[in-house]
Protein backbone atom coordinates (compact mmCIF):
# COMPACT_ATOMS: atom_id res chain seq x y z
CA UNK A 1 0.00 0.00 0.00
CA UNK A 2 1.40 3.39 -1.02
CA UNK A 3 2.09 5.89 1.73
CA UNK A 4 1.01 9.50 1.14
CA UNK A 5 2.88 12.50 2.59
CA UNK A 6 2.79 16.25 2.03
CA UNK A 7 5.79 18.59 1.87
CA UNK A 8 6.61 22.12 0.82
CA UNK A 9 9.40 20.98 -1.51
CA UNK A 10 10.61 17.65 -2.85
CA UNK A 11 14.14 17.57 -4.26
CA UNK A 12 14.93 14.81 -6.75
CA UNK A 13 18.54 13.65 -6.51
CA UNK A 14 21.10 13.79 -3.69
CA UNK A 15 24.10 14.81 -5.74
CA UNK A 16 25.82 18.01 -4.70
CA UNK A 17 23.15 20.18 -6.39
CA UNK A 18 20.28 18.37 -4.69
CA UNK A 19 21.97 18.39 -1.29
CA UNK A 20 22.84 22.09 -1.55
CA UNK A 21 19.25 22.93 -2.54
CA UNK A 22 17.88 20.80 0.30
CA UNK A 23 20.18 22.42 2.85
CA UNK A 24 19.17 25.92 1.74
CA UNK A 25 15.46 25.11 1.87
CA UNK A 26 15.71 23.49 5.30
CA UNK A 27 17.60 26.56 6.52
CA UNK A 28 14.76 28.71 5.15
CA UNK A 29 12.26 26.75 7.24
CA UNK A 30 10.67 24.79 4.38
CA UNK A 31 9.45 21.24 4.93
CA UNK A 32 11.76 19.53 2.43
CA UNK A 33 12.74 15.99 1.54
CA UNK A 34 15.42 14.82 -0.88
CA UNK A 35 14.80 11.59 -2.78
CA UNK A 36 17.84 9.68 -4.03
CA UNK A 37 17.67 6.59 -6.24
CA UNK A 38 21.04 5.24 -5.11
CA UNK A 39 21.92 3.93 -1.69
CA UNK A 40 24.54 6.67 -1.34
CA UNK A 41 24.66 10.44 -1.69
CA UNK A 42 26.98 12.33 -3.99
CA UNK A 43 25.95 11.37 -7.52
CA UNK A 44 28.93 12.14 -9.73
CA UNK A 45 30.98 13.03 -6.66
CA UNK A 46 32.38 9.56 -6.01
CA UNK A 47 35.67 8.79 -4.27
CA UNK A 48 37.47 5.54 -3.51
CA UNK A 49 39.28 5.35 -0.17
CA UNK A 50 43.07 5.34 -0.57
CA UNK A 51 44.73 6.18 2.76
CA UNK A 52 45.97 8.74 3.57
CA UNK A 53 43.46 10.26 1.13
CA UNK A 54 41.05 9.25 -1.61
CA UNK A 55 40.90 8.82 -5.38
CA UNK A 56 38.15 10.67 -7.25
CA UNK A 57 36.23 8.56 -9.74
CA UNK A 58 34.01 11.47 -10.73
CA UNK A 59 34.40 15.22 -10.16
CA UNK A 60 37.94 16.15 -9.14
CA UNK A 61 38.82 19.84 -9.40
CA UNK A 62 37.58 23.34 -8.81
CA UNK A 63 39.13 26.50 -10.20
CA UNK A 64 39.87 30.12 -9.32
CA UNK A 65 36.73 32.24 -9.20
CA UNK A 66 34.47 29.34 -8.25
CA UNK A 67 33.51 30.89 -4.93
CA UNK A 68 30.51 28.71 -4.10
CA UNK A 69 32.44 25.46 -3.96
CA UNK A 70 35.40 27.13 -2.23
CA UNK A 71 33.11 28.63 0.41
CA UNK A 72 31.27 25.33 0.90
CA UNK A 73 34.49 23.38 1.42
CA UNK A 74 35.71 25.98 3.92
CA UNK A 75 32.42 25.96 5.82
CA UNK A 76 32.36 22.17 5.99
CA UNK A 77 35.99 22.03 7.14
CA UNK A 78 37.18 20.03 4.14
CA UNK A 79 40.87 20.54 3.42
CA UNK A 80 41.85 21.40 -0.15
CA UNK A 81 45.20 21.54 -1.92
CA UNK A 82 46.64 22.72 -5.21
CA UNK A 83 46.77 20.40 -8.20
CA UNK A 84 50.47 19.62 -8.83
CA UNK A 85 51.61 21.29 -12.06
CA UNK A 86 55.40 20.95 -12.22
CA UNK A 87 56.95 18.89 -14.98
CA UNK A 88 56.75 18.17 -18.70
CA UNK A 89 53.89 16.95 -20.88
CA UNK A 90 53.80 13.79 -22.99
CA UNK A 91 52.03 13.61 -26.36
CA UNK A 92 51.23 10.25 -27.94
CA UNK A 93 50.28 9.66 -31.56
CA UNK A 94 50.83 7.04 -34.25
CA UNK A 95 54.51 7.95 -34.47
CA UNK A 96 55.17 7.33 -30.79
CA UNK A 97 55.57 9.47 -27.65
CA UNK A 98 57.04 12.97 -27.57
CA UNK A 99 58.01 15.02 -24.54
CA UNK A 100 57.12 18.72 -24.52
CA UNK A 101 58.53 21.24 -22.10
CA UNK A 102 56.21 22.29 -19.28
CA UNK A 103 52.72 21.25 -18.27
CA UNK A 104 50.58 22.09 -21.29
CA UNK A 105 47.38 20.39 -20.11
CA UNK A 106 46.67 21.41 -16.53
CA UNK A 107 45.57 24.82 -15.31
CA UNK A 108 45.90 25.94 -11.68
CA UNK A 109 43.16 24.19 -9.74
CA UNK A 110 42.39 22.85 -6.30
CA UNK A 111 41.33 19.41 -5.09
CA UNK A 112 39.77 17.97 -1.96
CA UNK A 113 42.16 16.12 0.34
CA UNK A 114 39.55 13.53 1.45
CA UNK A 115 38.05 13.30 -2.06
CA UNK A 116 35.23 15.27 -3.67
CA UNK A 117 32.59 12.90 -2.28
CA UNK A 118 33.42 14.26 1.18
CA UNK A 119 31.59 17.47 0.21
CA UNK A 120 28.37 15.55 -0.32
CA UNK A 121 28.73 13.34 2.74
CA UNK A 122 29.44 16.32 5.01
CA UNK A 123 26.53 18.33 3.61
CA UNK A 124 24.14 15.39 4.03
CA UNK A 125 25.34 14.82 7.60
CA UNK A 126 24.24 18.34 8.55
CA UNK A 127 20.64 17.70 7.51
CA UNK A 128 17.96 16.48 9.94
CA UNK A 129 17.25 12.76 10.04
CA UNK A 130 14.96 11.42 7.30
CA UNK A 131 15.35 14.48 5.07
CA UNK A 132 17.58 12.59 2.63
CA UNK A 133 15.94 9.34 1.59
CA UNK A 134 18.20 6.91 -0.29
CA UNK A 135 16.95 4.00 -2.38
CA UNK A 136 13.94 6.12 -3.39
CA UNK A 137 13.91 6.49 -7.20
CA UNK A 138 11.29 8.90 -8.47
CA UNK A 139 9.09 7.25 -11.08
CA UNK A 140 6.56 9.99 -11.86
CA UNK A 141 5.85 13.69 -11.32
CA UNK A 142 2.32 14.81 -12.15
CA UNK A 143 0.10 17.80 -11.51
CA UNK A 144 -2.51 17.39 -8.79
CA UNK A 145 -6.08 18.33 -9.60
CA UNK A 146 -6.25 20.26 -6.32
CA UNK A 147 -2.94 22.07 -6.87
CA UNK A 148 0.68 21.16 -6.35
CA UNK A 149 2.49 18.12 -7.68
CA UNK A 150 2.49 14.41 -6.93
CA UNK A 151 5.92 12.80 -6.76
CA UNK A 152 5.82 9.03 -6.95
CA UNK A 153 8.37 6.46 -5.83
CA UNK A 154 7.84 2.68 -5.79
CA UNK A 155 6.61 2.87 -2.20
CA UNK A 156 5.07 6.31 -1.74
CA UNK A 157 3.34 9.34 -3.18
CA UNK A 158 4.62 12.69 -1.93
CA UNK A 159 2.46 15.77 -2.38
CA UNK A 160 4.63 18.83 -2.96
CA UNK A 161 4.01 22.49 -3.56
CA UNK A 162 7.36 22.71 -5.36
CA UNK A 163 9.76 20.19 -6.93
CA UNK A 164 13.43 20.68 -7.72
CA UNK A 165 14.86 18.22 -10.24
CA UNK A 166 18.58 17.95 -9.45
CA UNK A 167 19.47 15.23 -11.94
CA UNK A 168 20.53 15.63 -15.59
CA UNK A 169 17.51 16.61 -17.72
CA UNK A 170 18.01 13.74 -20.18
CA UNK A 171 18.08 11.29 -17.27
CA UNK A 172 14.95 12.83 -15.78
CA UNK A 173 13.06 12.43 -19.07
CA UNK A 174 14.22 8.83 -19.41
CA UNK A 175 13.44 7.67 -15.86
CA UNK A 176 10.52 9.86 -14.71
CA UNK A 177 7.01 9.87 -16.15
CA UNK A 178 5.90 13.49 -16.52
CA UNK A 179 2.76 12.52 -18.43
CA UNK A 180 1.98 15.15 -21.06
CA UNK A 181 2.55 18.07 -18.69
CA UNK A 182 5.89 19.36 -20.00
CA UNK A 183 5.95 21.51 -23.12
CA UNK A 184 7.14 19.77 -26.31
CA UNK A 185 9.95 22.35 -26.58
CA UNK A 186 11.21 21.51 -23.09
CA UNK A 187 10.97 17.77 -23.72
CA UNK A 188 13.02 18.06 -26.92
CA UNK A 189 15.63 20.18 -25.14
CA UNK A 190 15.93 17.88 -22.13
CA UNK A 191 16.18 14.73 -24.22
CA UNK A 192 18.96 16.27 -26.33
CA UNK A 193 21.07 17.79 -23.54
CA UNK A 194 24.31 15.85 -22.90
CA UNK A 195 25.03 14.40 -19.47
CA UNK A 196 28.33 15.68 -18.12
CA UNK A 197 30.63 12.63 -17.73
CA UNK A 198 27.77 10.45 -18.94
CA UNK A 199 29.63 9.06 -21.96
CA UNK A 200 33.02 8.87 -20.23
CA UNK A 201 35.00 6.22 -18.41
CA UNK A 202 37.40 7.54 -15.80
CA UNK A 203 40.41 5.37 -15.00
CA UNK A 204 42.53 5.84 -11.87
CA UNK A 205 45.81 3.92 -11.41
CA UNK A 206 47.40 3.97 -7.95
CA UNK A 207 51.13 3.35 -7.45
CA UNK A 208 53.49 3.03 -4.47
CA UNK A 209 55.10 6.36 -5.40
CA UNK A 210 54.75 9.18 -7.94
CA UNK A 211 57.76 7.91 -9.92
CA UNK A 212 57.03 10.13 -12.96
CA UNK A 213 57.93 13.21 -10.92
CA UNK A 214 61.47 11.91 -10.45
CA UNK A 215 61.77 11.92 -14.25
CA UNK A 216 60.61 15.55 -14.40
CA UNK A 217 57.16 14.66 -15.76
CA UNK A 218 53.92 16.33 -14.72
CA UNK A 219 51.88 13.15 -15.14
CA UNK A 220 50.05 15.03 -17.92
CA UNK A 221 49.63 13.35 -21.29
CA UNK A 222 47.49 13.75 -24.40
CA UNK A 223 46.93 10.82 -26.75
CA UNK A 224 45.53 10.42 -30.23
CA UNK A 225 45.82 6.63 -30.08
CA UNK A 226 44.20 5.91 -26.71
CA UNK A 227 42.39 4.30 -25.11
CA UNK A 228 43.01 7.10 -22.58
CA UNK A 229 42.66 10.40 -24.42
CA UNK A 230 44.26 12.46 -21.68
CA UNK A 231 46.07 11.68 -18.43
CA UNK A 232 46.66 13.74 -15.28
CA UNK A 233 48.40 13.41 -11.92
CA UNK A 234 45.91 12.51 -9.18
CA UNK A 235 48.39 12.21 -6.33
CA UNK A 236 47.39 13.61 -2.97
CA UNK A 237 49.23 16.20 -0.86
CA UNK A 238 52.92 15.38 -0.73
CA UNK A 239 52.43 12.75 -3.43
CA UNK A 240 50.39 10.37 -1.25
CA UNK A 241 48.45 8.49 -2.39
CA UNK A 242 50.32 8.40 -5.70
CA UNK A 243 48.08 8.06 -8.73
CA UNK A 244 47.50 8.88 -12.39
CA UNK A 245 44.08 9.19 -13.92
CA UNK A 246 42.73 9.42 -17.42
CA UNK A 247 39.56 9.75 -19.46
CA UNK A 248 38.39 7.36 -22.17
CA UNK A 249 35.27 7.20 -24.26
CA UNK A 250 32.93 4.82 -22.43
CA UNK A 251 32.38 2.93 -25.67
CA UNK A 252 36.06 1.89 -25.55
CA UNK A 253 35.48 -0.15 -22.39
CA UNK A 254 35.45 -3.87 -23.12
CA UNK A 255 37.10 -7.18 -22.17
CA UNK A 256 40.62 -6.00 -23.10
CA UNK A 257 40.28 -2.45 -21.81
CA UNK A 258 42.27 -2.90 -18.61
CA UNK A 259 45.18 -4.48 -20.45
CA UNK A 260 45.10 -1.74 -23.09
CA UNK A 261 45.17 0.94 -20.39
CA UNK A 262 48.16 -0.46 -18.52
CA UNK A 263 50.00 -0.98 -21.81
CA UNK A 264 49.37 2.64 -22.76
CA UNK A 265 50.50 3.92 -19.36
CA UNK A 266 53.70 1.91 -19.72
CA UNK A 267 54.30 3.38 -23.19
CA UNK A 268 53.88 6.86 -21.75
CA UNK A 269 55.55 6.65 -18.36
CA UNK A 270 57.76 3.58 -18.53
CA UNK A 271 57.65 0.00 -17.15
CA UNK A 272 56.77 1.10 -13.59
CA UNK A 273 53.39 2.28 -14.88
CA UNK A 274 52.47 -1.17 -16.18
CA UNK A 275 51.62 -2.60 -12.76
CA UNK A 276 49.50 -0.26 -10.62
CA UNK A 277 48.64 -1.37 -7.10
CA UNK A 278 44.98 -0.77 -7.91
CA UNK A 279 43.19 0.18 -11.11
CA UNK A 280 39.74 1.74 -10.83
CA UNK A 281 37.55 1.90 -13.94
CA UNK A 282 34.42 4.00 -13.50
CA UNK A 283 32.22 3.77 -16.60
CA UNK A 284 29.64 6.50 -16.05
CA UNK A 285 27.62 5.43 -19.08
CA UNK A 286 26.76 2.23 -17.22
CA UNK A 287 25.39 4.08 -14.19
CA UNK A 288 21.60 3.76 -14.36
CA UNK A 289 21.09 6.82 -12.17
CA UNK A 290 23.53 9.01 -14.11
CA UNK A 291 23.23 8.17 -17.79
CA UNK A 292 20.06 7.54 -19.85
CA UNK A 293 20.00 5.07 -22.73
CA UNK A 294 21.74 6.50 -25.78
CA UNK A 295 23.88 8.88 -23.72
CA UNK A 296 26.76 8.42 -26.19
CA UNK A 297 24.71 10.18 -28.88
CA UNK A 298 24.13 13.35 -26.84
CA UNK A 299 26.86 15.68 -28.05
CA UNK A 300 25.51 19.25 -28.32
CA UNK A 301 27.09 20.89 -25.28
CA UNK A 302 25.79 24.28 -26.41
CA UNK A 303 22.49 23.20 -24.82
CA UNK A 304 24.04 23.47 -21.35
CA UNK A 305 22.50 26.39 -19.47
CA UNK A 306 19.73 26.85 -22.06
CA UNK A 307 17.32 29.69 -21.14
CA UNK A 308 14.44 27.20 -20.85
CA UNK A 309 16.13 25.66 -17.83
CA UNK A 310 15.88 29.01 -16.06
CA UNK A 311 12.10 29.01 -16.47
CA UNK A 312 10.02 27.04 -14.01
CA UNK A 313 7.78 24.38 -15.53
CA UNK A 314 4.45 22.85 -14.46
CA UNK A 315 2.74 26.11 -13.51
CA UNK A 316 5.92 27.45 -11.95
CA UNK A 317 6.28 24.52 -9.55
CA UNK A 318 9.12 22.52 -11.12
CA UNK A 319 12.68 23.86 -11.18
CA UNK A 320 15.89 22.46 -12.75
CA UNK A 321 19.07 22.25 -10.67
CA UNK A 322 21.67 19.93 -12.23
CA UNK A 323 25.04 21.23 -13.43
CA UNK A 324 23.89 20.84 -17.05
CA UNK A 325 21.26 23.55 -16.48
CA UNK A 326 23.67 26.17 -15.07
CA UNK A 327 24.23 29.28 -17.17
CA UNK A 328 27.78 29.51 -15.74
CA UNK A 329 30.30 26.77 -14.88
CA UNK A 330 28.12 24.06 -16.44
CA UNK A 331 29.69 20.65 -15.89
CA UNK A 332 31.58 21.80 -12.79
CA UNK A 333 30.70 21.39 -9.12
CA UNK A 334 30.36 25.18 -9.16
CA UNK A 335 27.76 24.83 -11.91
CA UNK A 336 25.75 22.41 -9.80
CA UNK A 337 25.81 24.83 -6.86
CA UNK A 338 24.90 27.75 -9.15
CA UNK A 339 21.91 25.87 -10.55
CA UNK A 340 20.82 24.78 -7.07
CA UNK A 341 20.97 28.37 -5.86
CA UNK A 342 18.82 29.52 -8.76
CA UNK A 343 16.26 26.75 -8.20
CA UNK A 344 16.00 27.51 -4.49
CA UNK A 345 15.40 31.20 -5.16
CA UNK A 346 12.69 30.37 -7.68
CA UNK A 347 11.06 27.90 -5.31
CA UNK A 348 11.04 30.27 -2.36
CA UNK A 349 9.77 33.15 -4.49
CA UNK A 350 6.95 31.06 -5.95
CA UNK A 351 5.91 29.73 -2.55
CA UNK A 352 6.02 33.17 -0.93
CA UNK A 353 3.83 34.54 -3.74
CA UNK A 354 1.35 31.69 -3.27
CA UNK A 355 1.23 32.21 0.49
CA UNK A 356 0.65 35.93 0.02
CA UNK A 357 -2.17 35.24 -2.45
CA UNK A 358 -3.80 32.79 -0.04
CA UNK A 359 -3.54 35.32 2.78
CA UNK A 360 -5.18 38.05 0.72
CA UNK A 361 -8.05 35.77 -0.29
CA UNK A 362 -9.06 35.00 3.27
UniProtKB/TrEMBL annotation:
Pfam family, any one: Amino_oxidase
Positions contributing to substrate binding: 247
GO molecular function: oxidoreductase activity
Residue spans crossing the bilayer: none
Residues that bind FAD: 138, 324
Superkingdom of origin organism: Bacteria
Cofactor annotation: FAD
Domain Amine oxidase: 110-345
Keywords: Oxidoreductase
Family: Belongs to the flavin monoamine oxidase family.
Name of the protein in question: Amine oxidase domain-containing protein
Lineage summary: Bacteria, Bacillati, Actinomycetota, Actinomycetes, Kitasatosporales
Amino acid sequence: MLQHHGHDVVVVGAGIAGLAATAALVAAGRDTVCLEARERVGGRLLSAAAPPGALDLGATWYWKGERRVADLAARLGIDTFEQPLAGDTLVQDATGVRRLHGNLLDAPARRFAPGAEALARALAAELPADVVRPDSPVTAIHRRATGGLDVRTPGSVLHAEQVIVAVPPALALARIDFGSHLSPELVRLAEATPVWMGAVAKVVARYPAAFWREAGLAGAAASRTGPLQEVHDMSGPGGRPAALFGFAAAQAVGPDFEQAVTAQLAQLFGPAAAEPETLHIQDWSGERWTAPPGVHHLADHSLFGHPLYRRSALDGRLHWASTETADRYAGHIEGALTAAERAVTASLTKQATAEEANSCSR
